[in-house]
Specification:
- By secondary structure, the chain is mainly α.
- Helices cover 51% and strands 0% of the residues.
- The chain contains four helices and no strands.
Length: 82
């Protein structure tokens, strides 16, 4: 579960730093998370995730707003069968 906090690029960077990324770049994130959890001791994985989340917050990703979200309209549908 801890590994699942990582985005794909973050998880791949961790594997790359340890020489474990070869052949994994095209894999689904689910399998990359599994590989991380199998290859890294829990304490090391927790440290890596902590560093990645802190770096993410420094980039301000939580404050970024997709302008398309602001233009979205919602149409009420009174007939639940439609």
């Amino acid at each position: 579960l801890i590994a699942q906090l990582l985005w794909k690029d973050e998880a791949l960077n961790i594997l790359e730093e340890r020489g474990l990324a070869k052949g994994w770049r095209a894999k689904r994130i689910k399998f990359i998370h599994q590989r991380l959890s199998l290859e890294l001791p829990l304490n090391e994985l927790k440290d890596c995730v902590r560093v990645a989340l802190k770096a993410r917050s420094r980039r301000g990703w939580l404050r970024q707003v997709d302008s398309r979200q602001l233009d979205m309209t919602v149409q009420p549908n009174p007939d639940p069968m439609l």
